[in-house]
Amino acid sequence: MDQATALVALSEKDLEITRATKRLDGLPEKQAILDVRHKLRDIEALSAKADVYVAQIEAAVRRAEDETATISAKIVAEQQKVDSGEISNHKELQSLSREIDSLSRQKDKKENEVLTLMEKLEAGKAQADKISATLVKGKAKEAQLISQFQKVGGDLQREIDHMQKQRVSLAAVLDDTLLARYDELRAAKHGLGVGILRESMCSACRINLPLEKVYALGGGGPIAICPSCGRLLVIRSGDST
Ligand SMILES: [Zn+2]
Q1: How much distance in Å is there from the Cα of 233 to the middle of ligand 1?
Q2: 240 falls in which pLDDT band (50, 70, 90)?
Q3: In angstroms, what is the span from residue 126 Cα to ligand 1's centroid?
Q4: Phi, psi for 226 (deg, rounded to 5)
Q5: Every domain of the chain and the residues it spans
Q6: What is the 169 CA–ligand 1 centroid distance (Å)?
Q7: For 235, phi and psi rounded to 5 degrees?
């Protein structure tokens, strides 16, 4: 296959692939999958936040419990001093008793703090569980939509895969520089990189080219550049007159 024929075939193949891909992307199932994924991302972010919050409260509970235990140990130690009978000094005993009272108040305060934190923790965990359940439900919905999409879009996808393979074979015929130029133009010009000269019109931009320009192009070989749209212009013998 010559370069010009391969170029035209490649361009036609690319248009077919684009059309089929658009059809595939336009399936309602595809949009539904994208919508669900968008929601899932939001829920995952929420879930991560809820987990961090729960971990923070758990750490705070542990800290408050440790502090309560430390205070309790101090109370026991002070109480043992009182109960041992070793201290007979009245003032010293009074001071110990005041210390124990103060420690007991601190302990009560800490215990209340633990209770408040536990309530917060419970609420936080309930919220995290709720978010997890929503996430599980969302993922099930996503899986269901994917299987639906595969059923509906499977044939179309196989067709696209097949055309992609054909594209690779056609692209292999072209010189590297010509292929690079073509891909560049295709990307820059709405997916269409090649025009064919028909009568004196470029099939891509549909502009009638002045005859002298057409002749000039024709003289340069079967693949030229359209002076109007800048795409590659294939001139088939007999077409340019
Ligand atoms: Zn053109």
Answers
A1: 7
A2: very low
A3: 65
A4: -70, 125
A5: 3-174, 177-234
A6: 26
A7: -110, 110
The yes or no reply on domain 3-174 and CATH 1.10.10.10 is no
Residues 61-118 have pLDDT tens digits of 999 999 999 999 999 999 998 898 888 889 999 999 999 999 999 999 999 999 999 9
Integer angstrom CA distances of residue 82 from 50, 76, 92, 94 = 48, 10, 10, 10
Residue 26 CA to ligand 1 center (angstroms) comes to: 29
**61 neighbors 159 (Cβ within 8 angstroms):** no
pTM exceeds 0.85 for this model: no
Ligand 1 centroid – CA 228 distance (Å):
5
> Among 205, 204, 203, 202, which Cα is nearest to 213's?
202
Q: In whole angstroms, what is the distance from residue 140 CA to residue 40 CA?
A: 11
Q: Is residue 236 a contact partner of residue 196, using CB atoms and an 8 Å limit?
A: yes
Q: How far is the CA of 170 from the centre of ligand 1 (A)?
A: 22
